[in-house]
Give the backbone structure.
Amino acid sequence: MPPKPAHPPLTPPLKWAGGKRWLVPQLRQLHDLVQPPRLVEPFCGGLSVALGLQPSQALLNDLNPHLINFYQQLRSGLTPSLKYRYQENLFYHYRDRFNQLIDNQKSQTPEAAELFYYLNRSGFNGLCRFNRSGHFNVPFGRYSNINYRQDWSPFQNLLKTWQFTCQDFATLPLQPTDFIYADPPYDVEFTQYSPTPFSWEDQVRLVNSLANHPGPVILSNQLTDRIHDLYQNAGYQLYPLNAPRRISCTGDRSPAREVLAIRNLDPEYTNRCGLRKHAQSSTSTRRLSD
């Protein structure tokens, strides 16, 4: 049987577009069956996968420096000092202060981490968006009420053995046995979750880079025609999925068609967790959804 998590379950502290909490049960089965020494996420995002799997060792990376600062401050023992109230005037005051810290090169501080948390929880649809000047520009949200976390201590123990980095995925110091789960920005028009957008060329570079890794690799993405072709041509086994939309620019929560692309895992493992490989070579997502 898979080992029980060493820590009690923790809900991801942030709202994050494309979060994968719904995928954690299947990923946990794959992760626990191969017993990897370290989980690596080149795009850790809202941290739902790492918090769900609770590995003893993890290398968690993201291109968003404000996100990584928040996690690093959690690991160091972040203590709330700001007043968290769901008020429009307070939101824009805190947003101005956060952008001021960015301008003054003080965005890697406990204050910036607290502000980032508040803006994330209070902003529209949980979006994380920056303008060309690098300023956070998400407007005030539309909620009836928000429960803000006041005690961060449960995260400190779990995160103390995890490494957080903010760098290009190609420069991550990988080990041959690392279990890699990569959830890059979707292949859709809106990809600016960090100050630096993620292009199609980055999608190609990611897939080709991870294809050289000798250990287990799992990629997830929205199932578009060119994503299907890119992953299949790079030698990945494709597993189409119906996924819920949690957060989007428009608030649309209709089902989304996604794909898991897997390398270096015995098909027996994927069968055990209910995944069924797509055997066709069609380039049409219309056929994939039949």
